[in-house]
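Q: What does the assembled structure look like for these inputs?
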Amino acid sequence: GQNIDQPTEMTATEGAIVQINCTYQTSGFNGLFWYQQHAGEAPTFLSYNVLDGLEEKGRFSSFLSRSKGYSYLLLKELQMKDSASYLCAVMDSNYQLIWGAGTKLIIKP
Amino acid sequence: GAVVSQHPSRVICKSGTSVKIECRSLDFQATTMFWYRQFPKKSLMLMATSNEGSKATYEQGVEKDKFLINHASLTLSTLTVTSAHPEDSSFYICSARGGEREPFFGPGTRLTVL
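A:
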């Protein structure tokens, strides 16, 4: 079956760095996405990786290893507004998105 | 990024009535639209996938006669919750994708059934 695993909840301190991991097993692979979702709002797109390596976009970076079925989202210089759920999703061979359950990130002052 | 709108953003209705939610892609042609439901503090749950001009594909456990989906054009899909009940109260979110691009989400519709 298809499976996306990510931690349920993480806590970090304002100004610090946090890494949110995602492992996947899917039928085919056409890219991995990270989305941010604040409570009561729709998800917003953060990043897309289809090749191995690190993609950096400001304070956020996303890494992919296709051979290991593994990705992480790295958030630097954490701000209180980064408190949100972070969703990992993989596009399978049929171009369908398979979603993880999301990681709730709590930022403490 | 591309823009997807949803209307209404919030709706309160009486039990037994039907509610229609619209999802529009404003600056691109959406060949595929997805409808999700999200209960408080829970993850997104895919309800159905619709391709323009064809019938929607529903996920297991989602009643197609209760959640009617129409994807009549490349920019508009509608979800109608028929004979809504309090347990249908949820946050309904659509996303739209053009070709093989990443999907873009609408802002969501919060449905409250009294």
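Chain B has a mean pLDDT of 91.
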